[in-house]
Amino acid sequence: MKIRIGLLLAVFSLGALLGQDEAQFPSWMKTVGGNMGATKKAIEAKSADAATSAAKVADAFDKVHGFYKSKAVADAEQAAATAKAAAADVAKFAQAGDFEKASTAFATLGGTCKGCHEAHREKGADGSYKLK
Q1: What are the residue ranges spanned by the domains of the chain?
Q2: Is 63:76 a contact under the CB 8 Å cutoff?
Q3: What is the pLDDT of residues 16-49, one digit of tens each?
């Protein structure tokens, strides 16, 4: 009996954790969106601030990657991994003052967005987005 109760608690706890990730997903994507513009402007201005904003994007994509991995959505998981790596590259190159390479890495980062959005998000009648 104790084992059954323990198993039920484990199952419900896992469900709550997964639900928590789903509830946090929009905030992760808003972090990405808010910092993409800042990163682009900082790269154009050749400012080391690009490293800070790109690091925030990389951190958010780390969470997005974990989310899609837990959902077993392979293409979105791969897109998030690619985006995370590209954002980390932007941060690294900007920190080193190599804004040409930072710009190239930023283009890779931005290129991951459209395909994943088309495949995995849906626009509601009110203009908001939700996962498909």
Answers
A1: 24-131
A2: no
A3: 444 557 899 999 999 999 999 999 999 999 999 9
Angle (deg, nearest 10), helices 74-96 and 2-44: 40
Task: List phi, psi (to 5°) of 130.
Answer: -140, 160
pLDDT one-digit tens code per residue, 68-112: 999 999 999 999 999 999 999 999 999 999 999 999 999 999 999
Nearest C-alpha neighbor of 38 from the set 98, 90, 114: 90
What global pTM score does this model have?
0.81
Nearest to 35 by CA among 50, 14, 13: 50
Residue 28 identity (one-letter amino acid): W
Domain spanning 24-131: CATH superfamily: Cytochrome c/b562 (1.20.120.10)
Which residue, among 44, 18, 62, has the nearest Cα to 102 in the 3D structure? Answer: 44
